[in-house]
Design brief:
- The complex is a heterodimer of chains A (465) and B (581).
- Chain A is an alpha/beta fold and 465 residues long.
- In chain A, strands 9, 11, 14, 16, 17, 18, 19, 20, 21 and 22 form a ten-stranded mixed beta sheet that branches. In chain A, strands 1-7-4-5-6-3-2 form a seven-stranded antiparallel beta sheet, with no helix packed on it.
- The radius of gyration of chain A is 25 Å and the shape is elongated.
- The N and C termini of chain A lie far apart (76 Å).
- Helix content of chain B is 34%, strand content 24%.
- In chain B, strands 8, 18, 19, 20, 21, 22, 23, 24, 25 and 26 form a ten-stranded mixed beta sheet that branches. A six-stranded antiparallel beta barrel of chain B has the order 1-2-5-4-3-6.
- Chain B is an alpha+beta fold.
- In chain B, helix 5 packs across helix 6.
- Classes of the chains: A alpha/beta (465), B alpha+beta (581).
C-alpha cells in the first residue's frame, strides 16, 4: 500500500465536504489526502461511502480546491498521531504538526486518534482528591483524579485565568508523582493562546505540558480532530508512561459549532438549535476518555471549558456536556461584576465524585458535613438577600440577618482569592468553620455533634488566635 | 445462512444488497471484522442494518452474512452478578480477551459454557409439563435460586430427567409431545423485542419498598408498577436510581446503564459487592444483573440494551420473583432511535424524534406488571420498571418525558432548585405524583398503620399550604402571618428537613423501613397537632418552637432500625412537654 491509487474524479465540493466518485475498496472513516494543483496536501476523512462514491470531510477547508485538478489519495487508515515523550514541552497545531519551530517528533508509536472505549470493568473508580488550591473548588466541588469536570463560563469571564491557575497548582496530597498537562485549544484567539503559552513558560509548567493549538483563524473543521489529538497524547502519557495527566480543552463551544457546520453541509435533520442529533454521542467520545484503569498508574483528568451562549445553561452545548461530565463548575457574571475572583457560583456547581474523594484519610473527616452546611446556609442566605431587596433590611428577623451576613462573608473571604493564592484543604475547611461560627448551634442542622466537638471547638481556638 | 454485500456505510447504518431470505430484525454479521448488526429495514434488494459496533474500516463490497435469527438473549444460570454490554456480551470476558479497551468483532458466548451448575430435578419421568413449568433448580448465588423452566412453546411428557453437575449447554431433560421429542437445556434463548408470554396480568397491590422516605411515604411505586424520574443534569437521577437498586425490596435487580457515564457503572461494580442487602445480609451483587452501555460505546447497542435488560428481567419474573429494572437513562435510548431514524432519512416527528417514539416507549413500559406466570401451577411474579429521563435543559415538554408520562403511573419530578440547596433526594413534593395509592392503601393500612395515609395526606397539605404562604411572606413578611400559619411554616420546614431530606451517603439515613417512616412522620405531625392545640389556647408560638424536644425530632431519622422503641419514648415526651404548660 505504499503507492496508493490517486483519484482525479472529484465531482463536487460543498463547504467542508468533497465527493469523489468511481472509487473502489474505500473504507468508512479512513483518511484521505487531497493533492492540490500546486502540490499542497490537505487531509480529509471519509464520512460516508455509498457504492463507488465517497464523501470526504476536509480538515483544512476547501479554499483553493477545484474539481478538475484535485487528486485524492486514500491512506487505508484512520487519522493517527505519532506519540513520543519528546512531545512534552512542545506546541503543535490542531492536527498534531509542530508549530514551535522545533524539530519533528520521532514517534515511538502511531495511535488512532479515535481511541477505543474503556471497558467499564477495567475502570478504576476515581477517588483520589486533587488539591487545586482554590477554596471554592476544593471545598465545594471537589475534583478527583480521573474526573471530567467542565467549566461553564461565558463571554468576558475569567475562565482562562482559572484554568491556568488550576494547571499551575493542581496536585495530589502527599505524593510526588509524574504530572503532565495536555492543552487542547479549539478556535481560541491568538491573545488567549498567547496568555496560556506565556503563563506556562513563566511558571515553568511548559516543561511538562503538550499544547495543541487550533486558533480562531485556523480551519474550523480541523477542530474536530484537535480534542482527539490532545486526548490520544494524554492516553499515551497516562496509560503507557504512567503519568497523571490533566487535559484542558478550550473552547468546546467552538468544537460543537464545527460539528454543526459539517452536519449542515451534509443536510442532516437538525436537532435543537441546529446542532446534530448525535452531538451527545460525539461529545461523549471525547469526555468519556477521562478516567483511571485498574492496575495502571496513570490517570486522565479533564477540564473542558465552554462558553455558554447568552449565559444560558440550557443551551444544547452546556446541557449535553452536563449530562456526560461528572459535575460542572459554573462561573457567574454577577460575582464577576462585583470583582470576585474566581467568580464560581457554588450553588449550581457540582462535583459528582466529591463524596468519594473526601473525608477521613483523604481530606478531613468534617469535609462532607461542613460543606453540606455551607451549601444550605448559603442558599438560605441568598434567599434572605432577595427578600431584603423586596421588603428592605428592616423586615428581616435577627436570624435572617445572620444568614445575609454569612453569604456576604462567604463570597468575600471564601470564594474570593487571588490568582497566586494557593490554599491547602485544611485552610479551606478552617475557613468554613470560621464562617459558620456566625450561627448559633441549632441553625447548623447538617453537622453532627461529634464533628462539632472535634472541629468547631478547634475552629474557636482558631478564632481566638 | 446466506450472504450479501455492503453497498453503503454511514456511521452505524450499513446498507447491504443481495441478502436473500433475510427477515426484519434478523441479526447479521457485517463486513470483514464480522461486526454484529440487526436488520431494521428492507427495500427491494437492499437491507438497512444498524450495526452494534464502530464501523470504521468497513467499506462497500465487503460481505454480510445473515444468521437467520432475531437478536436474542441467553437465559440460564450465570446471569446474576454479571456485567454485560448492550447485546449481552459479558464485559469481563471481553476484558480477558481484548484488555482494558473494548475491541470490535468479538463473538463470545453470552453465558459461560464451561462452568458446571448443580441441577436438582423437580419433576420425574412420566410427568406432564407445559411451558413455564419448573423442571429443576440451580442455586446460583446465596440469594437466588434459578428455576429452570420449560421454554416457551414446549410441552409434553417427561421422558428423561437427570440431576447432577451440568453446563448450560448439556441436555438435562427430554420431553415427548405428539410423538416428537424435544431436548431441554438449562439455557434458553428468547428474542429481546418480544414480551415473554404470561398467563394473565394482575393489578399491582403491594408497594415496592425502597427505603427512601419521599418515595415510600409520599409517592410510592407498586410491585409491578412503572415510574419515571425526569430531571435536569445534576439533580440526582443517578443517585436515586442507585438507591433504588440498592434498597428496593425486590429479589432481583436488573440495572441498565444506557448511554451514561462509565465511572457510574464502575461505581456500581465496586460498591455492590461491598453493600449488604438489609434483609438477607448478603452482598447486593448477588441479586443484581448489570447491563452497561456507556455513552462512548456504539449508539445502536444502546438501543438494544434496554430490551436486553427487560428480557432478562422477564425471565426472572417468570420464575415467580419480584424483579425491579432500572433504566438510566431512557433519553439516551430515544436519542439512539432518533439517530438511526435520521440516518434512515425517515420523516421526523417532534424535535427530530421518530414518529413511533411514543409507541416504542409505551411498548417498553407495558412489559412491566404483576403477572400470573405462564405455567400449570399458581405462580405470581412481578416486574417493576423505573426509567430515568434526561430532558434537554430540564424542560418537561420534551417529547421523551411527555410520551413517558402518558404510560407510567408514578412521576418523581426532580428539581434542580432543591439540588442546589443540597436537598436530596431532590424530588419535588408539589409536582410529583403516584397513581398507586389506591392500589396499596389496603396493604399500608393493614401492615403498617391505619393512620398512615391520613398522616401522609395531612403532611402533603401542609407542604402545599407552605408554598402558598411563602408567596405572602415574600410580599408582606413573616410577621404579618397568624400564629397558625407560622406553625404551618415551621412544621412544613420540619417535614422538609427532618423527613424528606435523606442522605444517601449516611450509613443510617440511607435506608428507612416503612415502620420507621411511619413513626418519623407521626412524630412530626404529633408535635404539630399538639402545638396547634396549644396555639388555640393562646400559648406563645415562639416559645413552643424553642422546645428542646424539637431538636430530638430533627435527629430522629438517625435512630437505628433495631431500636424503634425510642420513637414511643419521644412521642410520650412530646405529650408531657405540652401537658406541662
Amino acid at each position: 500500500m505504499s503507492k496508493a491509487k490517486e483519484y482525479s474524479t472529484v465531482t463536487s465540493i460543498a463547504g467542508p465536504l468533497l465527493m469523489v466518485e468511481h472509487t473502489a475498496g474505500i473504507k468508512y472513516d479512513e483518511i484521505a489526502e487531497i493533492i492540490l494543483k500546486n502540490g499542497e496536501v490537505r487531509h480529509g476523512r471519509v464520512l460516508e461511502i455509498n457504492q463507488d462514491k465517497a464523501l470526504i470531510q476536509l480538515f483544512e477547508g476547501s479554499m483553493g480546491l477545484n474539481l478538475a485538478d484535485s487528486r485524492v489519495r486514500f491512506l487505508g487508515k484512520s487519522l493517527e498521531l505519532g506519540v513520543s515523550l519528546d512531545m512534552l514541552g512542545r506546541i503543535f497545531n490542531g492536527l498534531g504538526h509542530p508549530i514551535d519551530k522545533g524539530p519533528d517528533i520521532i514517534p515511538e508509536s502511531k495511535l488512532d486518534i479515535n481511541g477505543l472505549s474503556i471497558n467499564p470493568c477495567a475502570r478504576d473508580y476515581p477517588n483520589e482528591f486533587i488539591q487545586t488550591g482554590i477554596s471554592a473548588i476544593d471545598g465545594m466541588t471537589t475534583l478527583v483524579r480521573g474526573q471530567k469536570l467542565p467549566i461553564f463560563s461565558a463571554a468576558g469571564l475569567p475562565h482562562n485565568e482559572l484554568a491556568a491557575q488550576i494547571a499551575r497548582q493542581a496536585k495530589v496530597l502527599g505524593q510526588e508523582e509524574q504530572f503532565a498537562v495536555v492543552f487542547g485549544a479549539m478556535g481560541i484567539t491568538f491573545e488567549e493562546a498567547d496568555y496560556f503559552i506565556t503563563d506556562f513558560k513563566k511558571t515553568g509548567a511548559i516543561e511538562r505540558a503538550v499544547l495543541f493549538m487550533n486558533l480562531a483563524d485556523d480551519p474550523a473543521i480541523e477542530r474536530i480532530a484537535t480534542p482527539r489529538m490532545a486526548l490520544t497524547c494524554a492516553e499515551y502519557l497516562a496509560f503507557e508512561k504512567g503519568m497523571h495527566v490533566l487535559v484542558i480543552l478550550t473552547d468546546m463551544t467552538n468544537y460543537c459549532e464545527a460539528l454543526r457546520q459539517i452536519s449542515a453541509a451534509r443536510k442532516e435533520i437538525p436537532g435543537r438549535r441546529g446542532y446534530p442529533g448525535y452531538m451527545y454521542t460525539d461529545l461523549a467520545t471525547i469526555y468519556e476518555r477521562a478516567g483511571r484503569i485498574i492496575g495502571q498508574k496513570g490517570s486522565i483528568t479533564q477540564f473542558p471549558i465552554l462558553t455558554m451562549p447568552e449565559d444560558d445553561k440550557t443551551h444544547p452545548i452546556p446541557d449535553l456536556t452536563g449530562y456526560i461530565t461528572e459535575g460542572q463548575v459554573i462561573l457567574s457574571r454577577e460575582l464577576h461584576r462585583r470583582s470576585i475572583y474566581p467568580p464560581i457560583d457554588i450553588l449550581p456547581s457540582l462535583s459528582r465524585l466529591k463524596e468519594k474523594g473526601i473525608g477521613e484519610n483523604k481530606t478531613r473527616g468534617d469535609h462532607g458535613s461542613v460543606t453540606s452546611q455551607i451549601f444550605s446556609s448559603y442558599a438560605r442566605g441568598k434567599e434572605v438577600k432577595e427578600l431584603a431587596v423586596i421588603l428592605g433590611e428592616a423586615a428581616l428577623t435577627e436570624t435572617d440577618k445572620i444568614y445575609a451576613r454569612f453569604s456576604d462573608d462567604l463570597e468575600a473571604t471564601f470564594i474570593s482569592q487571588k490568582e497566586d493564592d494557593e490554599r491547602s484543604i485544611a485552610d479551606t475547611l478552617d475557613l468554613c468553620w470560621k464562617l459558620l461560627l456566625l450561627f448559633p448551634r441549632n441553625e447548623l442542622k447538617r453537622i453532627k455533634d461529634a464533628d462539632i466537638e472535634k472541629y468547631y471547638l478547634k475552629g474557636q481556638q482558631f478564632e481566638d488566635k | 445462512m446466506n450472504g450479501g454485500k455492503i453497498v453503503k456505510v454511514s456511521g452505524p447504518l450499513v446498507i447491504a444488497s443481495d441478502l436473500t431470505e433475510v427477515k426484519m430484525y434478523d441479526v447479521v454479521k457485517v463486513g470483514l471484522p464480522q461486526l454484529i448488526g440487526e436488520v431494521i429495514g428492507l427495500d427491494g434488494n437492499t437491507a438497512f442494518i444498524q450495526v452494534y459496533e464502530e464501523t470504521s474500516g468497513v467499506g462497500p463490497e465487503e460481505p454480510v452474512i445473515s444468521t437467520g435469527e432475531p437478536l436474542s438473549v441467553e437465559l440460564g444460570p450465570g446471569l446474576i452478578g454479571g456485567i454485560y454490554d448492550g447485546i449481552q456480551r459479558p464485559l469481563t470476558v471481553i476484558q480477558q480477551m481484548s484488555g482494558n479497551w473494548i475491541a470490535r468483532g468479538i463473538d463470545i458466548p453470552k453465558l459461560d459454557r464451561k462452568k458446571k451448575w448443580t441441577f436438582k430435578a423437580k419433576v420425574s419421568k412420566g410427568d406432564q409439563v407445559v411451558t413455564g413449568d419448573i423442571i429443576g433448580t440451580v442455586q446460583e448465588t446465596e440469594l437466588v435460586e434459578q428455576k429452570i423452566m420449560v421454554p416457551p412453546g414446549l410441552a409434553g411428557e417427561v421422558t428423561m430427567i437427570k440431576s447432577g453437575d451440568f453446563s448450560v449447554e448439556e441436555v438435562v431433560c427430554q420431553l415427548k409431545q405428539d410423538g416428537q421429542s424435544a431436548d431441554i437445556k438449562m439455557a434458553q434463548r428468547w428474542p429481546v423485542r418480544k414480551m415473554r408470554p404470561v398467563k394473565e396480568k394482575l393489578p399491582p397491590v403491594e408497594p415496592l419498598v425502597t427505603g427512601q422516605r419521599v418515595i415510600d411515604t409520599f409517592f410510592p411505586v407498586a410491585k409491578g408498577g412503572t415510574a419515571c424520574i425526569p430531571g435536569p443534569f445534576g439533580s440526582g437521577k443517578t443517585v436515586v436510581q442507585h438507591q433504588l437498586a440498592k434498597w428496593a425490596d425486590a429479589q432481583i435487580i436488573v440495572y441498565v446503564g444506557c448511554g451514561e457515564r462509565g465511572n457510574e457503572m464502575t461505581d456500581v461494580l465496586m460498591e455492590f459487592p461491598q453493600l449488604k442487602d438489609p434483609r438477607s445480609g448478603e452482598p447486593l451483587i448477588k441479586r443484581t444483573v448489570l447491563i452497561a452501555n456507556t455513552s462512548n460505546m456504539p449508539v445502536s447497542a444502546r438501543e438494544a440494551s434496554v430490551y436486553t435488560g427487560i428480557t432478562i428481567a422477564e425471565y426472572f419474573r417468570d420464575m415467580g420473583y419480584t424483579v425491579a429494572l432500572m433504566a438510566d437513562s431512557t433519553s439516551r435510548w430515544a436519542e439512539a432511535l432518533r439517530e438511526m431514524s435520521g440516518r434512515l432519512e425517515e420523516m421526523p416527528g417532534e424535535e427530530g424524534y421518530p414518529a413511533y417514539l411514543s409507541m416504542r416507549l409505551a411498548e417498553f413500559y407495558e412489559r412491566a406488571g404483576k403477572v400470573k406466570c405462564a405455567c400449570s401451577e399458581d405462580r405470581e411474579g412481578s416486574l417493576s420498571v423505573v426509567g430515568a429521563v434526561s430532558p434537554p435543559g430540564g424542560d418537561l415538554s420534551d417529547p421523551v418525558v411527555q410520551s413517558t408520562l402518558r404510560v407510567v403511573k408514578v412521576f418523581w419530578s426532580l428539581d434542580d432548585k432543591l439540588a442546589y440547596m443540597r436537598h436530596f433526594p431532590a424530588i419535588n413534593w408539589l409536582s410529583s405524583y403516584s397513581l398507586y395509592l389506591d392500589n396499596i392503601s389496603d396493604y399500608l393500612g393493614k401492615r403498617i398503620s391505619p393512620d398512615f395515609l391520613a398522616l401522609r395526606r395531612e403532611a402533603i397539605k401542609l407542604l402545599q399550604d407552605e408554598a402558598s404562604l411563602e408567596e405572602i411572606v415574600r410580599l408582606v413578611g413573616v410577621e404579618s402571618l397568624s400564629p397558625n400559619d407560622r406553625l404551618t411554616l415551621a412544621t412544613a420546614k420540619s417535614l422538609r428537613e427532618d423527613f424528606l431530606h435523606q442522605m444517601a451517603f449516611d450509613p443510617e439515613d440511607t435506608y428507612t423501613s416503612l415502620q420507621k417512616q411511619h413513626l418519623l412522620l407521626k412524630l412530626i405531625m404529633h408535635f404539630h397537632h399538639l402545638a396547634k392545640a396549644a396555639v388555640s389556647r393562646k400559648l406563645n408560638l415562639d416559645e413552643i418552637l424553642k422546645y428542646k424536644v424539637r431538636e430530638k425530632i430533627a435527629k430522629a431519622k438517625y435512630i437505628p432500625e433495631n431500636n424503634l422503641k425510642i420513637f414511643n419514648e419521644l412521642l410520650n415526651e412530646i405529650e408531657n412537654v405540652f401537658k406541662a404548660v
